[in-house]
Specification:
Blueprint (H helix, E strand, L loop, with lengths): L14 H11 L11 H5 L10 H10 L2 H5 L3 H4 L5 H5 L6 H14 L6 H17 L4 H12 L9 H7 L10 H17 L1
The structure holds iron/sulfur cluster (2 copies).
Length: about 190
């Protein structure tokens, strides 16, 4: 969803969305005072459609579609810089994780590539107990039809990435963890 200041209608949100985010994440977005410290430290902010503090503000306003349709929640690297910097002790990274789960389950993921990447990543870990990077890249490129987009990276990548997948030690245990995490995500 493309978000602009014109498309945001403050005061017309749904407070049940704010309550749902609070209950699922265990965080209280209403404590956010818009100081911007999270945004100032966010390493992916330069490529985002919204600054981090704006996501918090939209959650406070109950603007479900704007929040769950945002690209930013998928760009978040879960580095936790925001959580550490927040003077209101909001675990913003945990909140972002909750928003992703809600977007996924609610069918709000607008960018097909997000679904393709996540699906290919989980399939790879299920098969090998770890991700096979080259296989993941090929799968992603094939499923999205973007075979030639990153072609200039191929020579560098081929020198560093394994051509064949290697199962990790304890692959069965890793797969069991993935299954449990997927199940937990479905139940949340
Ligand atoms: S956890 Fe996400 S939102 Fe927070 S600083 Fe890191 S990338 Fe930005
Ligand atoms: S650092 Fe905390 S209080 Fe400040 S804008 Fe970010 S979430 Fe809100």
């Amino acid at each position: 969803m493309k978000i602009s200041s014109k498309s945001i209608k403050l005061g017309e949100g749904d407070s049940s969305f704010t309550s749902e985010v609070k209950a699922r994440s265990g965080q209280n977005p209403s404590r956010c005072m818009q100081c911007g410290k999270c945004t100032a430290g966010c390493p992916v902010g330069f490529s985002a459609d919204l600054p981090v503090n704006a996501v918090l503000r939209l959650v406070q306003e109950g603007l479900r579609d704007e929040v769950l349709g945002s690209r930013f929640i998928w760009l978040c690297a879960q580095c936790r810089t925001c959580s550490v910097r927040c003077p209101q002790e909001i675990d913003v990274a945990a909140l972002m994780g909750t928003l992703r789960t809600m977007a996924w389950k609610g069918g709000h993921v607008a960018d097909k590539r997000v679904k393709v990447f996540l699906g290919a990543f989980v399939d790879s870990v299920r098969k090998h107990g770890r991700v096979h990077e080259l296989g993941l890249m090929m799968e992603y490129a094939l499923r999205t039809g973007r075979l030639f987009d990153e072609l200039e990276l191929a020579p560098k990548a081929l020198g560093k990435l394994s051509l064949r997948p290697h199962a990790s030690l304890g692959a069965d245990e890793v797969c069991a963890i993935v299954e449990r995490a997927m199940k937990k995500g479905e139940d949340r």
